Amino acid sequence: MSDAQMTTRAKDKSRWERFRESDFFYAFKRSPIALVSFTVVCILVLSAVFAPLIAPTNPFDPASLNLMNGFTAPMEPNAFTQETFLMGTDDQGRDVFSTILYGMRISLFVGVSAVLFAMVLGIILGLIAGYFGGWAETIIMRFADVQLTFPSILVAMLIFGIAKGFTPVEYRDQMAIWVLILAIGLSDWVQFARVVRGATLVEKSKDYVAAARLIGRSPWAIMIKHILPNALSPVLVIATISLALAIIAEATLSFLGVGAPPTQPSLGTLIRIGQGFLFSGEWWILFFPACTLLALALSVNLLGDWLRDALNPRLR
Hints:
This protein has helices at residues 3-12, 15-20, 23-29, 32-49, 51-54, 96-132, 134-148, 152-166, 172-203, 207-214, 219-227, 232-255, 267-275, 284-310. By secondary structure, the chain is mainly alpha-helical. It has a domain at 105-316: MetI-like fold. α12 (232-255) packs parallel to α13. The chain is globular and about 80 Å long.
């Protein structure tokens, strides 16, 4: 086969075919940890997305609740209604399996939204600090250094309390999820900014950036279209790992009673509710939500660790 034919054949391949032949996909197929963690993440995410179709009942619809079903053990018929539930019921007669599916939707929404907000904010500030330097870099990075001296969960609690204090009382429950996203996002932007700043400092001294300046490209065009694509690989790795941390942070805040409202309970809220019945014998109210949170956070974290190793050229 001639070189021209090989070039034509390479162009005719679809993106999926090129992806299947890439080193990244080959490493993914050869890693049991990546395969298992990716499968678990897909199952949990799809279960949360299609919760209305999978869940036997809507646990947050008061019309569907029956207090007579309260404290029913898993796979055991209720003494009054004779109904059986896969993972039992809580004190209000809500199906624990259904509450997990709906609660996981809140946890994933808060986690993904908070990471996206932190990533966008960190990328913008990192690009500004690395490209312009001077007083802008000094202010941004010193502020980041100060924030790193405090645990992120304390920073999130502080931001959540301040933002909730400015929210009108009648809108606090409706705005609680968005305030939670703001609090977690503002507590996690630093690592994105530091990585993007370091990549910008390296890239801005290269010839293609100098050529872009010579042809009159604006600084923002150079940062977004030329420098940022070369810094996306580490940013995506950090985003994957940060997703697990954001989910845990949301669960921690909700467990402490300063996160998701009772009308929109997340996995952390369900764990807080179950903790109150643990020593009275109703272990399943705490056990199943806690196992779901552990499986979700652990699988996302393992997938992020593998992604970091797969995208690191030094380990190839």
